[in-house]
């Protein structure tokens, strides 16, 4: 029997982001949204539009290597934003899912020395996450099919040298 999965469509993604933005704005006014690439790229950008925040930045962290396969610890990939760029700011850290929570924790620790405050926002939270995100659209214990990652990568028909 196939494993049950949480399926997020682009339409539901739009609803999720608007509802998540409302949660954030009801109690927090960030200066910048820091998106965790790759999964958080779309969330951070969409939250930026929904919350009318133009200051959206990216930090690249690798953790997953496949379905339910991950590195031992998340690893920050270059280029990392200069911590001085975040000095004195209220930061909203955005990602697609808090599965183990280790990626969110790594980015919060990275920001801690320079920001005034950081909070986290995710579309999904898994029950076993080591941190409790500040803003969550939905909790699930299932593997999540995101509309942008459910299909295999597009490949080129052009022969590489």
Automatic annotation (TrEMBL):
Residues covered by the Phosphoribosyltransferase domain: 11-150
Which keywords does UniProt give here? Answer: Glycosyltransferase, Transferase
Claim: Glycosyltransferase is one of the keywords in the record: yes
The record's Pfam families line, in alphabetical order, gives:
Pribosyltran
Q: Does the keyword ATP-binding apply?
A: no
- InterPro entries hit by this protein: PRTase-like (IPR029057), PRTase_dom (IPR000836)
Instruction: Output the Gene Ontology terms for molecular function.
Output: glycosyltransferase activity
Descriptive protein name: Phosphoribosyltransferase
What organism is recorded for this protein? Answer: Corynebacterium frankenforstense DSM 45800
Organismal lineage? Bacteria, Bacillati, Actinomycetota, Actinomycetes, Mycobacteriales
């Amino acid at each position: 029997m196939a494993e049950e999965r949480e399926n997020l469509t682009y339409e539901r993604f739009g609803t999720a982001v608007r509802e998540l933005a409302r949660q954030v704005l009801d109690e927090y006014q960030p200066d910048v949204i820091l998106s965790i690439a790759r999964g958080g790229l779309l969330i951070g950008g969409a939250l930026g539009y929904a919350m009318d925040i133009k200051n959206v930045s990216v930090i690249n962290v690798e953790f997953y290597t496949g379905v339910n396969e991950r590195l031992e610890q998340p690893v920050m990939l270059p280029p990392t934003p200069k911590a001085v760029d975040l000095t004195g700011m209220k930061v909203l850290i955005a990602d697609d899912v808090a599965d183990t929570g280790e990626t969110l924790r790594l980015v919060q620790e990275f920001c801690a020395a320079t920001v005034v405050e950081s909070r986290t926002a995710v579309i999904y939270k898994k029950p076993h996450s080591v941190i409790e995100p500040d803003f969550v659209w939905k909790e699930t214990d299932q593997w999540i099919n995101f509309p942008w990652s459910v299909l295999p990568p597009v490949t080129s028909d052009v022969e590489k040298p």
